[in-house]
């Protein structure tokens, strides 16, 4: 391969990502006209049209998409190799992208950020929260975090926290005037705060367990939100009864701002795991983040 071919292929990958000659040129330090000319020469050498151009945008053709699918992993490997060489002298550094659900980010990632910054000041952690399942490889993430039962079989998984337990909570002030709650069936008479799943738009089921029997209870929500922080705040304000993970409200339970209800019906869920593809060579920065987040077995 000629050196010019490699440079043009790398430029093609950036154009395909940015969907713009102007933005790609800004990243590469090349004028958009020079970049467009280089792409036409590349297409002539390959005898294939790689990009569809309009006055407003540019996008890969079917042939361009096939080339990109082979090209991106190779460029990623080259970039990782160069970064690994640099890390031998300066320590782990660079951007580490993780896709996670909100609860794990709040409970297990954010509390470790200060230690991560002090130990590895060259690492930048980029966290995206998403309640649904994401193909982390095709989306360009280094790793993902999900509950254990949601993990794909071909991923390497590292536990980052203990198992979860559900909890029904309310403020003492709310309970003073609310109907008595002796069992899950009494929740139908309560003002309940429901969580709407962002991915499916359905309401999170209020699930309970007694012995080996697991069952759902239909509630009548007085307030619905897809923001977990807002749900917790509404519960703290005495709007109604909340259904959460115990870990999310542990400090509020400890200080008495919230009261746990129906503890004998609590459901246990497999805890959160960080996962990543085992076939990809791991950058030192990613390994450092994994080791920092790894669960040490202490509750």
UniProtKB/TrEMBL annotation:
Annotated TM spans: none
Entry annotated with the keyword Transcription regulation: yes
Gene3D superfamilies the record matches: 3.40.190.290, Winged helix-like DNA-binding domain superfamily/Winged helix DNA-binding domain
Key words of the record: DNA-binding, Transcription, Transcription regulation
GO BP terms, alphabetized: DNA-templated transcription
Coiled coil residues, start to end: none
Family, as annotated: Belongs to the LysR transcriptional regulatory family.
Name recorded for this polypeptide: LysR family transcriptional regulator
Upper lineage: Bacteria, Pseudomonadati, Pseudomonadota, Gammaproteobacteria, Oceanospirillales
């Amino acid at each position: 391969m000629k050196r010019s071919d490699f440079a043009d292929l790398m430029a093609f990958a950036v154009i395909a990502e940015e969907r713009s000659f102007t933005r790609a040129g800004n990243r590469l330090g090349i004028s958009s006209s020079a970049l467009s000319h280089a792409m036409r020469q590349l297409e002539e050498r390959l005898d294939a049209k790689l990009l569809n151009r309009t006055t407003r945008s540019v996008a890969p053709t079917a042939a361009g998409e096939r080339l990109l699918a082979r090209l991106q992993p190779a460029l990623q490997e080259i970039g990782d190799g160069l970064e690994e060489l640099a890390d031998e002298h300066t320590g782990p550094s660079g951007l580490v992208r993780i896709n996670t659900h909100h609860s794990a980010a709040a409970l297990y990632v954010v509390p470790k950020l200060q230690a991560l910054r002090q130990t590895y000041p060259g690492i930048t952690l980029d966290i995206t929260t998403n309640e649904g399942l994401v193909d982390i490889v095709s989306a360009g993430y280094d790793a993902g975090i999900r509950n254990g039962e949601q993990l794909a079989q071909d991923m390497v998984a590292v536990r980052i926290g203990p198992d979860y337990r559900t909890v029904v909570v309310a403020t003492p002030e709310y309970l003073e005037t609310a109907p008595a709650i002796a069992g899950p069936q009494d929740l139908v008479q309560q003002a309940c705060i429901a969580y709407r799943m962002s991915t499916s738009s359905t309401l999170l089921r209020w699930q309970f367990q007694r012995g080996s029997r697991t069952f759902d209870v239909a509630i009548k929500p007085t307030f619905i939100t897809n923001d977990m922080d807002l749900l917790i705040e509404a519960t703290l304000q005495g709007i109604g009864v909340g259904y959460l993970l115990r870990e999310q409200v542990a400090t509020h339970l400890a200080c008495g701002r919230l009261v746990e209800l129906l503890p004998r019906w609590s459901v246990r869920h497999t805890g959160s795991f960080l996962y990543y593809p085992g076939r990809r060579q791991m950058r030192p920065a990613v390994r450092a983040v994994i080791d920092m987040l790894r669960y040490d077995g202490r509750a």
